[in-house]
């Protein structure tokens, strides 16, 4: 009777810490004490029944694993994957340490392994001592596994179903391997090699389980690192796009959507520092102030947008850049174009505006003045811009003189 009480105490110690670590693994808020006590009563009654019926150890531990799995499944609220993982951890700890204690006891007491099997009706059966020691040590190991560092690794495994599947297969095969070693307890031979082989199997299982967990944890960590790097790259890419969008917004004129004066000067400075050859054309709308004063700023904006559309059509895609340089001033950057070509392009823009006025009568003329300058003769950007501005105003002055 005393051995039965001692067995119940040591098993309860193992049982309690098993459900304690399963609760922590799935981050349950409250420990379901009533269910733990009920499952303890059921499991211990099951062990007693197996002993009375003298089931073989293979049948005994296989049935215990099934029982433990369904209890854990119910305890976890139906999470089959985590229940299977926890049940395999509990059964491997329990069975490996139990076999180890039986084998060590057989060596120490110079008894055959058969003396520690499940045949309790035999007077020579002395399994109580290693069984109690086995549950006590298994409970200690499970309690140790509940340390934060080890627990975080086990949680990591549960968070990666794809890699956990590999580990579950290894654990299943280790349980099967241990179960086969229980066949040694059916032999009456008092052979030291058999006992050492049994101990070797326990150590092999422990080392194999450790390596499998360690390997799977590393794989999960690498996947987390890759996912983290992917998220960081996505965040950086999103930030880069946002910066480009903000930079582009800062470089755009809100009315016309063209690049502004600041961006124009930055672009021209960069091209001159790289000694690239280009031609610029300064354009100034004729009579915009008159339109604003006489017809209102809304009509003046319509004038600006109409001219912008015609200028934009004359620019070569991917070659020329159009900027709104000021209130009524535009600048075209012609790459790989001579002054003559640029001047012809500006003349065509003016002609198109004149034809538009003829087709669609307007209360004011649509025209512009321009000045074209090539960069080859200039080393300073300010000189280049001043010359283009001077030529543009010279053309505007001549128009006024001709009208007068």
**What gross morphology would you assign?**
rod-shaped
Report the C-alpha radius of gyration, rounded.
44 Å
Task: State the distance separating the first and last CA atoms.
Answer: 129 Å
Please outline the major beta sheet: 4 strands, antiparallel
Kindly estimate the percentage of residues that lie in beta strands according to DSSP: 5-15%
| Helix and strand run | HHHHHHHHHEHHEEHEH
Question: Which blocks of ≥5 consecutive residues have pLDDT under 50?
Answer: none
Sheet with most strands: strand arrangement: 2-3-1-4
* Computed structural class: alpha+beta
Oligomer: single chain
Helix content: over 70%
Compute the average pLDDT: 87
- Figure out the total of helices: 13
Instruction: Count all strands and give the number.
Output: 4
Describe this protein's structure.
The chain is of the alpha+beta class and 404 residues long. It has helices at residues 2-25, 33-53, 57-75, 80-109, 128-145, 148-158, 161-181, 192-250, 261-273, 288-295, 297-313, 339-359, 381-403, and strands at 278-285, 321-324, 329-335, 368-374. The chain contains 13 helices and four strands. It has a four-stranded antiparallel β-sheet, sandwiched between helices. α1 runs antiparallel to α4 (80-109), α3 (57-75) runs antiparallel to α4 (80-109) and α4 packs parallel to α7 (161-181). The N and C termini lie far apart (129 Å).
